[in-house]
Amino acid sequence: MPANMTAFMDKTKNDDDNVTEQVRLEDQHETVVAAMEGKLLYAPVDLSKAGLRILDSACANGRWIVDLQKAASPAEHDYRGTDVVESLYPKPPPKRTHFQDQSIKEPFPSEWQGTFDVVHQRLVMAAAAPEQTPEFVVQNLAGLLKPGGWLQLVEVITTPVPENPVSQNQYIDMLDSLYKNLYAGTKYAKSNLMADLPQEMEESGLRNVQKAEVLVKYGAATTDPSIREKSLRTAVAGVPNFLTVLKEMSGDVWKEEWNDLPQRLQRDLAESGGYMKYIVCWGQK
What we know:
By secondary structure, the chain is an alpha/beta fold. It has a single domain (3-284), classed as Rossmann fold (3-Layer(aba) Sandwich), CATH 3.40.50.150. Helix content is 36%, strand content 21%. It has helices at residues 6-14, 19-35, 63-72, 134-142, 166-182, 197-203, 225-237, 239-247, 261-271, and strands spanning 53-57, 78-83, 97-101, 116-122, 145-157, 207-218, 274-284. It has a seven-stranded mixed sheet with strand order 3-2-1-4-5-7-6. Strand 4 (116-122), helix 4 (134-142) and strand 5 form a beta-alpha-beta unit. Helix 2 packs across helix 7 (225-237), helix 5 (166-182) crosses helix 9 (261-271) and helix 7 (225-237) packs antiparallel against helix 9 (261-271). It is globular. It starts with 5 loop residues before the first helix and ends with a strand. InterPro entries: SAM-dependent_MTases_sf (IPR029063). It holds the Pfam family Methyltransf_23.
């Protein structure tokens, strides 16, 4: 059986009943949103217009929904959150929010097709591999949109940043290797896979497709003291789990430099900081 991201998800569920994962998710959300200068939606959606139907696919602990509700207030909308780890959902759920188990590898309920004004998904595309492709995920999400509705995707650009310490660029290379090898033997086994998302969105029938690059700062590179420690924690928290997935892969995948990567990354980001680029893509039905 080919390696996939199940090992990552199982580890976060089993180690300490998601306590560590909840911290990682909160840190990740605040680090990314700070880099986006608080901008949750790049798609030009008028949140002041009450009654929108909004989905956060792979919502994890629902933090994006919580913050979007605050940004939209006093307008009220109908929110849906889907994921495969029910224990992460906030209890009680936020007002006018319903959470439902749903994998991005599976078709969404037929009654949801063509019913959403906004569909959002962030940093989970790799979890579809190898059973499903980015093409499937994008088409699956685009099918949920009403005419005129918007899909927004956020993923990592896996190319090195010149200003980074060596360990941070080795981490980026590790992610790139992970994505490529999850799709070994297919057309998706290539570097910087997520850079193709705008094209995938256009080929799914979306129009007005646009993209933006966001430079996310970690550790000492972050000037905001309220984000600095959170950014450092989230930068290193997932590394051991990614390495677990890579170790399960067949073939000559493993690199010696990954053996002590978590320790070096922690030290270097704390001392000098580092950067990673994210791609934000949005398109309209």
